[in-house]
Write the structure tokens for this entry.
Amino acid sequence: MRSLPTVVGVDGSAAALDAVRWATLDARLHRSDVVVVSAISLPRALTGVGILPEPVVQQSRSEIDRILDEARALAARDNARMGEITIDTVSSENSAVATLLELSDTSRMIVIATRGLGGTEQRSLGSIGFAVTTHARCPVTVVRGWTGESLDHESRPVVVGVDGTKASAAAVELAFDEAYVRSAPLTAVHSWSDADLSVGVPIRGLEWPANRPAAADQLARMLQPNVRRYPTVSVRPVVVKDRPVQALLDHAQGAQLAVIGSHGRGGFAGMMLGSTSRSVLARASCPVTVVPTAGRRLVRTTGTSNPDVA
């Protein structure tokens, strides 16, 4: 069965074209068609009453068409080398955020870049990226500095953060599927404590050597359902005492993808992105996928990519 489409947002920037390359590869692996989206975002109040000159409107629309044509041609070239998928384009006169969030209701994945036209590399996620990763109904991948060169899927791991929450469970499920389609190993990182336990007075009963075996057992239990579902995926469990952000960033070095839930321990579905998610998105050196608890995950919507799973 064909998967739901993979949607990638473009704005004419080089970073957005990297996102197109990543989205095309990921879509091929998941047998998903690609929809390339760009938004004009002209003020409707002005265009509706004719205040904004028509030549300006037409110029903006022509520029969007050019951006979409360039992105579609790039996706088509990569697709010709890798396999056959359908590539469509969508031009919207709504805001980029509104357009992508609407499409997230019927998409397998939304793919965006960390920055766009006129942007500079910053230690924070842009406003569009923050809004989309916070509110999208499907997983969102934020692509940073990815060109696809020298990518060895079978040696570079997929990394996932595991904390036992529902959002984390959704992230683990997707991470296993991503590792499976790439024939890649999976590194599952679990932090025993969100707090920095190196600060303050040691608390009796919370010594790490004594608690590490229990933390490892807990991680094994959280992974077990997907270990059974994906028996061919090689899993490396990692338990650390504290500072989950740093642990995830360390293991993301050299990884091909990091997968995280939208909210961590203590978070609620209606809240903004959790602090760990925000930090990893802003600082990771590889593409990062944020998985919402209520998102339309591939394994739940159209069946997993794993043919051995019913």
